[in-house]
TrEMBL record:
Keywords: Carbohydrate metabolism, Fucose metabolism, Glycoprotein, Glycosyltransferase, Membrane, Signal-anchor, Transferase, Transmembrane, Transmembrane helix. Signal peptide: none annotated. Pathway: Glycan metabolism. GO terms for biological process: fucose metabolic process. Belongs to the glycosyltransferase GT106 family. It is found in: Membrane. It comes from Urochloa decumbens. It holds the Pfam family O-FucT. Its main location: membrane. PANTHER family: O-FUCOSYLTRANSFERASE FAMILY PROTEIN, OS02G0726500 PROTEIN-RELATED. This is O-fucosyltransferase family protein. GO terms for molecular function: glycosyltransferase activity. It is a single-pass type II membrane protein. GO terms for cellular component: membrane.
Length: 492
């Protein structure tokens, strides 16, 4: 009897031990599954964390506002999410693209080219970047953007390859069908005119990418894809992102900061013909440059008339008065996002005197940190782009590509405050004030009143039938991709 009782106890002990072991295994599995669920949540949701001060919505291509600020975003950066399923389709040929312009003009062009390739079921070759412009930047796509992320994040929409197959490389060296698509075209143009050419030639090359898709009237799926490329697929390289986060973190440690995109560089003044405030010698130099570049079509320009029409960037002296009128105080931290200011420190003297806490990336980062990016204007512009997105307020002095694309990205991030200056009205007010017709208080009140509705609030994009170039720019206000309350629409 004793022997039997001992065996029963041993069997009960063995069963208890097995149950305990099974419970431990099961609990470990539950913990691991919970961890994985947190780690691999959908990217659109992961990037949509709400933020104060008008922030919210998704940051998309810059991987979250916390990442922009240099904060640790957790395990999501340690392990990449699983690849989205590849879309299987019969390709109608290959699309090669040479983008033209500066960083943000090329950025918008890339978004359009992806959308066109998807619409026509083409295979896209990673775009080539402009190396012949005024800036003569030798950067390739992979020097600015994360190529693998670009390809993999869009694999459920279209095939993107780093280069043509060898057979087609040899063929296109002898003969390549190259053309600029018609500007501001809709999807019907590409289906009826471009698709037959792609099928016939197997490889088609677009030698321009700027403004090749219409602002309005496109199917919602195409508009949403443009946003997905812009805000999610176009992520800067790890080197650019790391340095950009350091810049942002340094600025935010000092409190709130304003980014002033001061578009007062030599190329802009020469191209626009705007010489207000320049000496006669400087005016001659800018005019010579304009004639030296054959693709700058407009040669004879009346600077006075153009300024009165609001078509000139504000000068550093003018922007100083505007900032004061808007209520920015002397202790405001202002980051200047721009290339080299024409006239150098002399032209910045008035702005510096009014705002002593005026900084640029060259003052925040060491020469060693900036050295890999110097002589690469697009990479330097990428750093300014990141800082502009993260700023508390963004103010462009001109409505060029950088200003418009950043404005649209900040709308996407939850309609973060962007002061879009009414230059035509401001020039009128500035001349009245400086001529003695307005007191300072009258001038300041008028400036504030004229900009109440120009702070980046939700607004309908302007449509002008038959005049697409005069419409509001899609990338400045991608309203199809924005929720009614400033939140992010699902563009995945």
């Amino acid at each position: 009897m004793v022997a039997v009782g001992g065996g029963g106890r041993r069997r009960r002990a063995w069963r208890w031990a097995m149950r305990a072991a099974a419970s431990a295994v099961l609990w470990t599995a539950v913990v691991q599954l919970a961890s994985i669920a947190g780690l691999f949540r959908p990217r659109v949701l992961a990037d949509c964390g709400g933020g104060g001060g008008g922030g919210g919505g998704g940051v998309g291509g810059v991987a979250g506002l916390a990442a922009l600020a240099g904060e640790d975003t957790g395990a999501a950066r340690l392990s990449p999410p699983a690849l989205v399923p590849k879309r299987i389709y019969k390709s109608n040929g290959y699309l090669r693209v040479t983008c033209n312009g500066g960083l943000n003009q090329m950025r918008a062009g890339i978004c359009d080219m992806v959308t066109i390739a998807r619409h026509l079921n083409l295979t896209l070759v990673v775009p080539e970047l402009d190396k012949r412009s005024f800036w003569a930047d030798p950067s390739d796509f992979g020097d600015i953007f994360d190529v693998d992320h670009f390809i993999n994040s869009l694999r459920d929409e279209l095939m993107i390859v780093k280069e043509l197959p060898l057979k087609l490389q040899l063929r296109t060296k002898k003969r390549l069908y190259s053309m600029p698509p018609v500007s501001w075209s809709n999807e019907t143009y590409y289906l009826k005119r471009i698709l037959p050419l792609a099928r016939k030639h197997k490889v088609i090359h677009f030698d321009k990418s700027d403004a090749r898709l219409a602002n309005n009237g496109l199917p919602i799926q195409l508009q949403m894809l443009r946003c997905r490329v812009n805000f999610q697929a176009l992520r800067f390289t790890p080197q650019i992102e790391a340095l950009g986060r350091k810049l942002i973190s340094t600025l935010q440690r000092s409190g709130q900061f304003v980014v002033l995109h001061l578009r007062y560089e030599m190329d802009m003044l020469s191209f626009s013909g705007c010489t207000h405030g320049c000496s006669s010698k400087e005016t001659e130099e800018l005019t010579r440059m304009r004639y030296a570049y054959p693709w700058w079509k407009e040669k004879e320009i009346d600077s006075v008339v153009k300024r009165l029409q609001g078509l000139c960037p504000l000068t550093p002296e003018e922007i100083t008065l505007v900032l004061k009128a808007l209520g920015f105080t002397k202790d405001t931290l202002i980051y200047i996002a721009s290339g080299e200011i024409y006239g150098g420190e002399r032209r910045l003297a008035v702005l510096k005197a009014a705002y002593p806490k005026l900084v640029r990336k060259e003052k925040i980062l060491s020469p060693d940190e900036l050295r890999p990016f110097q002589n690469h204007s697009t990479q330097m512009a990428a750093l300014d782009y990141m800082v502009s997105l993260a700023s508390d307020i963004f103010i462009p002095s001109y409505d060029g590509n950088m200003a418009r694309v950043v404005e649209g990205h900040r709308r996407y991030m939850g309609f973060r405050k962007t002061i879009v200056l009414d230059r035509k009205k401001l020039v009128e007010l500035l001349d009245l004030f400086q001529g003695g017709a307005l007191s300072w208080d009258e001038f300041s009140d008028a400036v504030k009143e004229s900009h109440k509705s120009r702070m980046g609030q939700p607004t309908e994009r302007k449509i002008i039938p038959g005049q697409p170039k005069e419409e509001d720019y899609f990338y400045a206000n991608p309203q199809e991709c924005l929720g009614s309350n400033g939140g992010l629409r699902d563009i995945s």
